[in-house]
Specification:
- The chain is an alpha+beta fold and 642 residues long.
- It has four domains: 44 residues; 92 residues, Penicillin-binding protein 2a (Domain 2); 115 residues, no CATH class; 354 residues, DD-peptidase/beta-lactamase superfamily (Beta-lactamase).
- The strands form eight sheets. Strands 2, 3, 6, 7, 8, 14, 22 and 23 form an eight-stranded mixed beta sheet that branches. The chain has a five-stranded antiparallel beta sheet with strand order 16-15-27-26-25, with helices on both faces. Strands 1, 11, 12 and 13 form a four-stranded antiparallel beta sheet that branches.
- Helix 3 packs across helix 5 and helix 12 crosses helix 15.
- The protein is elongated and about 160 Å long.
- The N and C termini lie far apart (145 Å).
Length: 642
């Protein structure tokens, strides 16, 4: 009995142990199933999310800005280029409570806004390995050169941080030493800063750039963008294409080059070659500055163009600016404004070249025809017209040389409103010239149907119409080249970075405005202007015959024409026998007597003398009269003329 009970007890124990083992096995199996299911879930459903998080920890994409294309003059002189720069950053862990002192030190050395730096140095925290630490990577300033960074490090090494907090312990002094060495650093990615090697030379034509933070492919990159001038016009060609590097990084942010996944090099931008000549541009700007110091105008502009092709060889405006430091642009006087293409004004007497040209071309007047100029005062009972000097009878040539308003009106009256308006339009007034620069204006030419009885007399002498300096320059150039209005050129060609030509721009003839016969007659009259018998005696050159026209336009002030504020101008070309250059000089509100012959003509003369020497132009006495030339020289001279 006892044996049977013991046997049953033993079986009961075994049964319990078996149940425990089965239960444990089932639980173990369920645990494995849960783990396996979790692994399957992670692999199938969380794979992309976890992979992305892992790559955020180890993989980094560096965007690489392309090197912007260069801008060169016609001789290959570098006008705009690039300098390798970095992005300046700060590690807040090494700054801590010294952020105000550090902000002041950095702002003082780099000449930037201290409050902006202080805001960036405000203590901020990021989570690293589950712990909140001070942000080790705060961007302070982009486009910092190697020299600027090294200079800043040397400056911080000597900066008196100790004076900010008196009675420091040894541990604090040790912290400051670490701060001097490790607080600022640069990102290990090359960037580019736009530089203009010649400073303010051709500033309005070149324009300037700005660095703009852009999100590209989900990543931040600072891109250089053209804001004005050629930089803006040709921005798409100059900027190139962004590159990037996708790589693994070690725990201390060092790149593991053997684990680079992608490495796409940026593509450099195209080079832009201008029609400008840096030598002539320097001459123009130097003489403009001298003229400004002499006449003290509120603004001024000068254009030098090759009349046969329409190529702009030099273009300058006052006031000016330094494109290397666009933040210094004076907005109050619009120092960044290219006045040669965006100033509109009533031209005054320079517009008489259009009036006399239309009369000669239409055949309603000849140079020797006499015009009675009413001794300086004319009235038809409804409106009046006057001259600065009282003239009796003058020939058409003398009317232009003396700049008689009355004589010009009587000459244009024979042409008629409609035909005169057609010549105005044909010369390009009222329309943009199409120069490859931003900001050009078209001027104002009212339709004939809106003209009143007095309008013809005012338009004939350059009032009740507005033009730009470039328009009046191209009109004179059309007279110089035999009657063909050319589209002004500022870009000569676009080149690949290796110098191969991608696109070549050729001179473009807009239309024929005058016949060669009428331009020869008009040129003869214009040479009289720049003589002892004309209003531009101060534009005469010793070795070259100058053809040109002065302008003195009264400006409207408070709704009335002022006797104190004028726009003084002179536009002319040389040598008159075979024109090579055409120059316009315009001074807005010069001090004293506002005559173009006093303020603008001398500046024209100074530029013309230096430009002719620079270009090695043959003097006018080289062009002998035809009867004194050998036959082959006669043919050569005729071929060169128009």
């Amino acid at each position: 009995m006892n044996q049977r009970a013991h046997s049953m007890k033993t079986r009961t124990v075994y049964a319990k142990q078996l149940r425990r083992m089965v239960t444990f096995a089932v639980m173990l199996l369920l645990g494995f199933l849960v783990i396996a299911g979790r692994l399957v879930y992670i692999q199938l459903f969380l794979h992309e999310e976890l992979l992305s998080k892992a790559q955020e920890k180890t993989r980094r994409t560096w965007l690489r800005e392309s090197e912007r294309g260069q801008i060169l003059d016609r001789q290959g002189v570098l006008l705009a280029s690039n300098q390798r720069v970095r992005i300046l950053c700060a590690n807040l862990a090494y700054i801590d409570r010294y952020n105000d002192a550090m902000a002041k030190a950095i702002a003082t050395y780099l000449e930037v806004d201290e409050s902006a730096i202080r805001d960036r140095l405000e203590l901020a925290y990021v989570t690293v390995k589950g712990q909140e630490v001070l942000d080790p990577h705060v961007r302070l300033k982009v486009k910092v050169t190697h020299e600027e960074f090294e200079g800043l490090k040397a400056y911080l090494a000597q900066y008196p941080f100790e004076e900010v907090h008196q009675g420091l312990h040894a541990s604090d002094l040790g912290f400051i030493e670490k701060m001097r060495k490790h607080a600022v650093f640069v990102e290990p990615v090359d960037d580019f800063k736009r530089i203009y090697p010649n400073g303010m030379l051709a500033a309005h034509t070149l324009g300037f750039t700005r660095s703009q933070e852009t999100i590209h492919g989900g990543h931040t990159v600072f891109l250089t963008q053209g804001v004005a001038g050629i930089e803006k016009t040709c921005d798409d060609m100059l900027k190139g294409a962004i590159g990037w590097t996708e790589t693994e990084r070690a725990p201390r942010k060092r790149e593991l080059r053997e684990y680079r996944y992608r490495d796409l090099s940026p593509r450099a931008g195209m080079n832009v070659v201008l029609t400008l000549d840096a030598g002539l541009q320097a001459i123009v700007e130097e003489e403009l500055q001298k003229g400004v110091e002499q006449s003290h105008p509120t603004s001024a502009s000068i254009i030098l163009v090759r009349p046969q092709t329409g190529e702009i060889l030099a273009m300058a405006s006052y006031p000016t600016f330094n494109p290397n430091r666009p933040s210094t642009i004076n907005r109050s006087n619009s120092s960044d404004k290219n006045r040669a293409i965006s100033d509109q004004f009533e031209p005054g007497s320079t517009f008489k070249i259009v009036s006399i040209a239309s009369a000669l071309s239409e055949g309603t007047s000849r140079l020797e025809d006499k015009v009675f100029c009413e001794n300086g005062r004319f009235s038809n009972g409804r409106w009046s017209l006057s001259d600065d000097h009282g003239y009796g009878s003058l020939s058409v040539m003398e009317v232009l040389a003396k700049s008689s308003n009355i004589g010009t009106y009587k000459i244009i009256r024979r042409v008629g409103e409609n035909r005169f308006h057609k010549y105005i339009s044909d010369f390009g007034f009222g329309s943009m010239t199409g120069i490859q620069l931003p900001g050009e204006l078209s001027g104002t030419v009212h339709p004939v149907r809106h003209w009143r009885d007095v309008t013809l007399s005012r338009v004939a002498i350059g009032y009740t119409i507005s033009v730009t300096p470039l328009q009046i320059t191209m009109a004179m150039a059309a007279i110089a080249n035999g009657g063909y209005l050319m589209q002004p050129m500022i870009i000569d060609r676009i080149e690949y970075p290796d110098g191969r030509v991608m696109s070549q721009y050729d001179p473009h003839e807009v239309r024929q405005v005058l016949t060669s016969k009428s331009t020869r007659q008009l040129t003869e009259a214009l040479t009289r202007v720049a003589s002892e018998h004309g209003t531009a005696r101060r534009a005469q050159l010793e070795d070259y015959t100058v053809a040109g026209k002065t302008g003195t336009a009264r400006k409207i002030v408070n709704g009335h024409y002022s006797y104190a504020k004028h726009l003084a101008s002179f536009v002319g070309f040389l040598p008159a026998e075979s024109p090579e250059i055409c120059i316009s000089v315009l001074f807005n509100e010069p001090e004293g007597t506002g005559y173009g012959g006093i303020h603008s003509a001398p500046v024209f003369k100074a530029i013309a003398e230096r430009a002719a020497n620079y270009l090695n132009l043959k003097p006018s006495n080289w062009y002998l009269p035809a009867h004194e030339m050998p036959q082959e020289l006669v043919l050569q001279s005729q071929a060169m003329a128009y």
